[in-house]
Automatic annotation (TrEMBL):
<feature type="transmembrane region" description="Helical">
    <location>
        <begin position="33"/>
        <end position="51"/>
    </location>
</feature>
<feature type="transmembrane region" description="Helical">
    <location>
        <begin position="185"/>
        <end position="206"/>
    </location>
</feature>
<feature type="domain" description="Phosphatidic acid phosphatase type 2/haloperoxidase">
    <location>
        <begin position="113"/>
        <end position="227"/>
    </location>
</feature>
<protein>
    <submittedName>
        <fullName>Phosphatase PAP2 family protein</fullName>
    </submittedName>
</protein>
<keyword id="KW-0472">Membrane</keyword>
<dbReference type="InterPro" id="IPR036938">
    <property type="entry name" value="PAP2/HPO_sf"/>
</dbReference>
<feature type="transmembrane region" description="Helical">
    <location>
        <begin position="89"/>
        <end position="108"/>
    </location>
</feature>
<dbReference type="Pfam" id="PF01569">
    <property type="entry name" value="PAP2"/>
</dbReference>
<feature type="transmembrane region" description="Helical">
    <location>
        <begin position="212"/>
        <end position="233"/>
    </location>
</feature>
<keyword id="KW-1133">Transmembrane helix</keyword>
<dbReference type="InterPro" id="IPR000326">
    <property type="entry name" value="PAP2/HPO"/>
</dbReference>
<feature type="transmembrane region" description="Helical">
    <location>
        <begin position="115"/>
        <end position="136"/>
    </location>
</feature>
<feature type="transmembrane region" description="Helical">
    <location>
        <begin position="156"/>
        <end position="176"/>
    </location>
</feature>
<keyword id="KW-0812">Transmembrane</keyword>
Length: 244
């Protein structure tokens, strides 16, 4: 009898949550996005903390050096030009230019939620990058340097990679929303671009591999937080329109 009651209560609970998740209420939509957002955010932070712990304890020193020396052997004139280009694509001038251009576009079109999401991603990501760098004092590789960036900030994590993931990732997300048919290609192109930026920072000799990995982890964490905030506001707007 007790087992029967337990199964009955469990079935009622399952039906309740199915109704909640299948409904178009703001609570159910936010609940699903909240769970997904928190899990991805925590996963990214966990990866960053894991890498940071190994870097602080000097456990990655030999690994970093071995990879950098292996990358040095791949240097050829054509790749030199290509990697310098990708490094510049992930640089502050290009990223600021893209952000300003999209800010003007969203402002003229009165796309307030898109504007808020972009500013949150761009400004928040830049400030977070500077804050994390200020907590570390890791020197940049002294093996070679193909680009003179006059950088005085900590090497850990890579600001180019982190901000590149945030800006290009958020742009790719918006494009995928606008062109769902091409979503797969858009995400693939975005992934390859940020991957090339990270590789280029090692290729030109300005970052250790762990700097790049930490940049990916922190960048994805902030990108996920920005997209999560955007989705919540977008869902509220859509539900408000349906109610009107």
């Amino acid at each position: 009898m007790t087992i029967f009651r337990f199964r009955q209560k469990a079935s009622q609970l399952v039906r309740f949550w199915q109704q909640q998740f299948n409904s178009h209420s703001l609570l159910s939509l936010q609940s699903l996005m909240f769970i997904k957002g928190i899990l991805l955010f925590l996963l990214s932070i966990g990866v960053f903390l894991y890498i940071t712990d190994r870097v602080i304890n000097l456990e990655t020193r030999d690994w970093d050096l071995d990879i950098m020396l292996a990358i040095q052997k791949t240097h050829i004139p054509l790749l030199d030009i290509l990697m310098k280009t990708f490094s510049n694509i992930g640089g502050p001038l290009v990223l600021i230019g893209i952000s300003v251009g999209l800010t003007v576009k969203f402002g003229f079109r009165r796309q307030r939620i898109e504007l808020f999401g972009l500013l949150l991603a761009a400004i928040g990501g830049a400030l977070l990058s500077l804050l994390i760098k200020a907590c570390f004092n890791r020197s940049r590789p002294q093996i070679w340097a193909m680009i003179d960036d006059h950088l005085n900030t900590s090497s850990y994590p890579s600001g180019h990679v982190m901000n590149g993931v945030v800006i290009y990732g958020f742009c790719g997300y918006l494009l995928a929303r606008s062109f769902p048919r091409w979503r797969g290609l858009i995400y693939l192109g975005t992934f390859l671009l940020v991957l090339a930026i990270g590789w280029s920072r090692m290729y030109v000799g300005l970052h250790w591999p762990t700097d790049v990995l930490a940049g990916y982890a922190t960048g994805f964490a902030w990108l996920n937080a920005s997209i999560f905030s955007f989705e919540i506001l977008k869902q509220r707007e859509e539900i408000r329109r349906k109610q009107v």
